[in-house]
């Protein structure tokens, strides 16, 4: 009988936990950073916050301030020759929990799966200028648009659960087929929805509070 599972991520705690009937695995956040059109060559990988804000930058995917998050899946057993491998079929739902630290303006944001092994990025080097999602050749595999709403400033210090089931399934497929199918794990992009005026901040893994 196939195992089923749920994946949870807590941005403030920065852990990804896979729970199944017989398997318990933890996958911490590997990289998280925000980029901003207000300072195109600056790196914010060491910031204690992950920001989302409107702007007028040149990148159509991220005209303002966007956030990138990637998880380390090495603790989850995978591989085509691994009899204990966790497969995408075992995952019923995957959820990333984002903890709000500031809400300056309410609105909606989108989640995109960042695609392509050639679109690799690291927390310590990513900037607005070199971010993997670009106007000329956006490698984002898919986006869930206007799906996540920060409706009130009173949500500060609360959390939002974001569905990342498909990205997690894609990453597991890639790992279990040696890249023959699925999607290389370049994490996810959080970006302001078209027409939204949202301005919020979430906890990053550097947030000690």
Descriptive account of the structure:
Strands 1, 2, 3, 4, 5, 6, 7, 8, 9, 10 and 11 form an 11-stranded mixed beta sheet that branches. This protein is mainly beta. A hairpin with a 3-residue loop joins strand 2 and strand 3 (24-36). It contains 1 helix and 11 strands, in the order E-E-E-E-E-E-E-E-E-H-E-E. The longest helix has 12 residues, at 165-176.
| Estimated radius of gyration | 17 Å
- Mean pLDDT, nearest integer? 81
Query: Percent of residues in helical segments?
Result: under 10%
* Helix and strand sequence: EEEEEEEEEHEE
Shape estimate? globular
Count of helical regions: 1
Uncertain residue segments:
1-18
Taken as a percent bin, the fraction of beta residues is: 35-45%
Number of strands: 11
The major β-sheet equals: 11 strands, mixed
Helix-strand category = mainly beta
Distance between the termini: 42 Å
Concise account of the structure shown:
The chain is mainly β and 209 residues long.
Summarize the topology.
Layout: E1 5-10, E2 15-20, E3 24-36, E4 49-53, E5 65-71, E6 91-105, E7 107-114, E8 140-150, E9 159-163, H1 165-176, E10 188-192, E11 199-203
Parallel strand pairs: 1-6
Antiparallel strand pairs: 1-2, 2-3, 3-5, 4-11, 5-10, 6-9, 6-11, 7-8, 7-10
């Amino acid at each position: 009988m196939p195992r089923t599972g749920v994946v949870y991520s807590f941005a403030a705690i920065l852990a990804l936990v896979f729970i199944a009937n017989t398997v318990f695995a933890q996958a911490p956040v590997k990289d998280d950073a925000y980029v901003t059109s207000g300072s195109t060559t600056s790196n914010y990988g060491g910031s204690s916050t992950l920001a989302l804000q409107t702007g007028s930058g040149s990148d159509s995917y991220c005209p303002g301030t966007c956030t990138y998050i990637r998880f380390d899946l090495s603790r989850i057993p995978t591989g085509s020759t691994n009899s204990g491998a966790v497969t995408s079929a075992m995952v019923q739902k995957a959820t990333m929990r984002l903890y709000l630290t500031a809400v300056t303006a309410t609105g909606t944001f989108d989640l995109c799966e960042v695609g392509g092994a050639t679109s690799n990025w690291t927390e310590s080097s990513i900037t607005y200028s070199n971010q993997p999602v670009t106007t000329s050749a956006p490698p984002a595999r898919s986006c869930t648009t206007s799906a996540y709403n920060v409706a009130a400033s009173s949500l500060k210090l609360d959390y939002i659960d974001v569905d990342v089931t498909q990205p997690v399934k894609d990453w597991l497929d890639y790992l279990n087929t040696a890249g023959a199918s699925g999607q290389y794990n370049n994490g996810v992009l959080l970006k302001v929805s078209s027409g939204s005026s949202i301005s919020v901040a979430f906890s990053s893994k550097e947030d000690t509070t």
